């Protein structure tokens, strides 16, 4: 081991001991309105301290993953990527300091108390009325920083998938080796009813560790995505869609996101069951508000990053579609492939599948989204297992190969490839993390023999801080 990597490891250990600084949706929006190179610098400065802390915490946690997971090739790969990202951030020059006068009215990020000192290189007096011309040092730092975190984010793109592969590596190892002989400490009363599920689980609960890992990853990706988008707005304001602050839409339309997520989930379903001639329909109902029963609203708007909302709906729609098709496929005509299947008129009244109903209710505190299907439900004893990241009843045979990435991209998300149903069991737990990230929640209620209801609660006020581990 070279002395360089030794000192990097020491640095990582040190960073991991620092506290993370949580942010809220509201804070991010207030901060990102009217972005200037100075706000961007403020954000860079915050992230240049915050991201290494968050990365370091994850790296040390990866080292302590149980059951040999830490040494699987997949987890080693994730660790190497995160170390590389940590090193890149550590190698950046220190951000130029701004005088306190400029930092007024900027967001109350706890971590950047230190950056309002006056830098000797920049004359504090001159900055009392900020120069019309932005100092080169500021522009240069902003550019370099944005470039660096763009690489950090790209490196992380496949991490969730890689982690899922790590889990299946351990699972395979466990099935062939001693792990299967260990006493089951996970769900003792449930397991006997679920032979097939038992094979899909590790002998003790990795859920908490994985929840922490994935939650932190959501947070880092959000912060980076937000900064990159703000940098774009700053350099090219016309490129930003009105209503957006970074990647947050201050008035996201639930109808629009439901439509996009349906389209993408239908695409996956079609790839999974290529012989279906019709697909279950996904119908949206907007609940009439109790406060105004005469109103006929047909959409609900609230502040949220649409990509997060899309992630949750897409995962849940995939599940509901699969359950519906598996339960009712004998009623559907199979093998007459219709090319226009994905167009909405193919989802017509003759559709033999019971539709998936999406009901959206707008309250003062929450927007609640209920997704109801008639896919037969989940047995009550199996319900606790769905949060485990490994519980799946997906028949891998009928699915596209593990993690295979098709050349199609998500409708509405340029360059984002669709990952087909991997059957890893990642869908529901990850959707709940997204819901919780901004103070919401996700619940699953099963009507065994009939169908499943999933409730997503989105906190409207947006002042909940990230629930970081
Ligand atoms: N709407 C539903 N109806 C019936 N069973 C469901 C429903 N949603 C989930 N399940 C059950 O819960 C399991 C876990 O779902 P989850 O979305 O977490 O993983 P998956 O769909 O198996 O795989 P992935 O989402 O990673 O591709 C599913 O395999 C299925 O058995
Ligand atoms: Mg799923």
Automatic annotation (TrEMBL):
Catalytic reaction list: L-seryl-[pyruvate dehydrogenase E1 alpha subunit] + ATP = O-phospho-L-seryl-[pyruvate dehydrogenase E1 alpha subunit] + ADP + H(+)
GO cellular component, one term: mitochondrial matrix
GO molecular function, one term: pyruvate dehydrogenase (acetyl-transferring) kinase activity
Compartments in which it is found: Mitochondrion matrix
Gene Ontology BP annotations: regulation of glucose metabolic process
EC number(s) from the headed UniProt entry: 2.7.11.-
Domain Histidine kinase/HSP90-like ATPase stretches: 304-462
Keyword Iron-sulfur: no
Gene3D superfamilies registered for this protein in UniProt: Alpha-ketoacid/pyruvate dehydrogenase kinase, N-terminal domain, Histidine kinase-like ATPase, C-terminal domain
UniProt KW keywords: ATP-binding, Kinase, Mitochondrion, Nucleotide-binding, Transferase
SMART domains attached to this UniProt entry: HATPase_c (SM00387)
Keyword match Mitochondrion: yes
Pfam family, one: HATPase_c
First-listed, main subcellular location of the protein, grouped into a coarse class: mitochondrion
PANTHER family in UniProt: [PYRUVATE DEHYDROGENASE (ACETYL-TRANSFERRING)] KINASE, MITOCHONDRIAL, PYRUVATE DEHYDROGENASE KINASE
UniProt family annotation: Belongs to the PDK/BCKDK protein kinase family.
Protein name, UniProt field: Protein-serine/threonine kinase
Organism in which the protein naturally occurs: Physocladia obscura
Taxonomic classification: Eukaryota, Fungi, Fungi incertae sedis, Chytridiomycota, Chytridiomycota incertae sedis
């Amino acid at each position: 081991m070279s002395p360089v990597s030794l000192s990097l490891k020491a640095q990582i250990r040190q960073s991991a001991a620092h506290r993370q600084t949580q942010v809220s949706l509201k804070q991010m929006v207030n901060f990102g309105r009217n972005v200037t190179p100075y706000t961007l610098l403020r954000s860079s400065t915050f992230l240049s301290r915050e991201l290494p802390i968050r990365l370091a915490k994850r790296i040390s946690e990866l080292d302590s993953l149980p059951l040999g997971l830490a040494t699987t090739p997949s987890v080693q790969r994730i660790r190497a990527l995160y170390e590389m990202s940590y090193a890149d951030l550590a190698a950046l020059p220190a951000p130029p300091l701004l005088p306190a006068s400029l930092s007024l009215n900027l967001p109350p990020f706890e971590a950047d108390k230190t950056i309002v000192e006056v830098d000797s290189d920049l004359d504090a007096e001159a900055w009392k009325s900020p120069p019309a011309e932005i100092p080169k040092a500021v522009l240069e730092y902003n550019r370099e920083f944005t470039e660096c975190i763009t690489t950090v984010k790209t490196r992380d793109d496949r991490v969730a998938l890689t982690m899922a592969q790590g889990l299946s590596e351990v699972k395979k190892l466990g099935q062939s080796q001693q792990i299967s002989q260990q006493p089951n400490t996970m769900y003792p009363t449930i397991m006997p009813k679920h032979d097939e599920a038992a094979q899909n689980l590790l002998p003790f609960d990795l859920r908490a560790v994985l929840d922490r890992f994935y939650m932190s990853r959501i947070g880092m990706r959000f912060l980076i995505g937000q900064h990159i988008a703000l940098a774009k707005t700053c350099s090219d304001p016309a490129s930003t869609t009105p209503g957006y602050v970074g990647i947050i839409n201050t008035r996201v339309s639930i109808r629009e996101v439901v439509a996009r997520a349906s389209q993408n989930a239908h695409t996956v379903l079609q790839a999974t069951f290529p012989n279906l001639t019709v697909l279950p329909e996904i119908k949206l109902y907007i609940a009439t508000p109790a406060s105004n029963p005469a109103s006929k609203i047909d959409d609900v708007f609230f502040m949220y990053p649409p990509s997060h909302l899309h992630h949750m709906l897409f995962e849940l729609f995939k599940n509901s579609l699969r359950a519906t098709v598996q339960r009712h496929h004998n009623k559907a005509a199979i093998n007459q492939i219709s090319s226009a299947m994905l167009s909405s008129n193919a989802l017509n009244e003759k559709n033999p599948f019971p539709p998936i109903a999406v009901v959206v209710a707008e309250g003062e505190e929450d927007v609640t989204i209920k997704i109801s299907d008639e896919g037969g439900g989940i047995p009550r004893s199996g319900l606790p297992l769905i949060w485990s990241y490994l519980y799946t009843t997906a028949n891998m045979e009928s699915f596209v190969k593990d993690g295979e990435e098709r050349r199609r991209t998500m409708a509405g998300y340029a360059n984002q490839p669709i990952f087909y149903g991997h059957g890893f069991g990642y869908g529901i737990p990850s959707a709940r993390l997204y819901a919780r990230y901004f103070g919401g929640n996700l619940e699953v209620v099963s009507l065994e023999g009939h169908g499943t209801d999933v409730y997503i609660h989105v906190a409207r006020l947006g002042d909940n801080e990230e629930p970081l581990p």
